[in-house]
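Database export, one record per block. Field names are fixed; values are copied verbatim from the stored entry.
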Amino acid sequence: MTGRIALKVAATFLSLFFVFNYGILLVGVMARVRARVQGRIGIPIWQYYIDIVKNNAKRTSIIHGIMFYLGPIFRLAGGIGTYLFIPTIFGSYLFSNFSFAGDLLLVMYFIFFGQLGMALGAGESGHPYSAIGVARGLAQMTAFEVPFALSVIAVVIHFDTLSITGIVAAQQGGIQHWILLVNPFAAVAGIIATLGMSMGNPFSIVIAPQEIPIGPPTEFQSNLLGMLQTNRALFNAAKLILFMNLWLGGATNFLELIVKTFSLYLITVIVGQAFPRFRTEQAIKFFLTVPTIIGIAGIIYAASVR
């Protein structure tokens, strides 16, 4: 028993190492894609490695309060916790992680745990505009949670399970079994919700990177920023793997995983380059109308075809 536990822990660390590096490469590749669309060359793909090592090697003497330091820790814990309970490769012992019955609910809690912790940390940063950023972020997060939750409910109703592994297993046998084709309403509502989760255009008003030189990248520096950058790579890849499992049938090998997750990420990049930024109230109104209606339609459809 002890040997099996040790093997499982070792396999999980190997899985974390893989998804962390894959997340960094995704961020670097997409940064180059955005730059090319804008007529620029862009940063080297490996630049994110340099930034993470450099920032984690530094220390800060700025003191704002205990929650200021716990914010990045909660953020990273949310990213790691999300990934630990998502099966990466279906049917693989090494990359099944700690998936268990009902893990979908736990993963959803972990997704928002890091964001709420980050809001508490930013609120204690001492910056006069931090409350504005927190209010924007939580308001938009609450809005895109609605269509995402509706999409997940539709998937659960359709397959009658809260196990991510069970959901992936039910979609095996060909593309015709994927939720994307079996219940396109649920998939479309979920994919639209992921645009808000990515915090990119047109839903980047939370940090407004082109106009406001403040926010977490400035307030959190040195090793605190290094933790946020580490989480960005890990959490981004973890969410893509979760979405792939929910709507695209999961992956039975690494090539399939890369193709599906890259395609999902590319959707957010294309939308971000094609549409201007929404104001906070515009984003909330959008998420509570179009994708919410589609998500409700997905639940009705799933219940009708059972």
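Remark 1: The chain has one domain: 2-305.
Remark 2: Residues 82 and 239 are 8 Å apart (CA to CA).
End of record.
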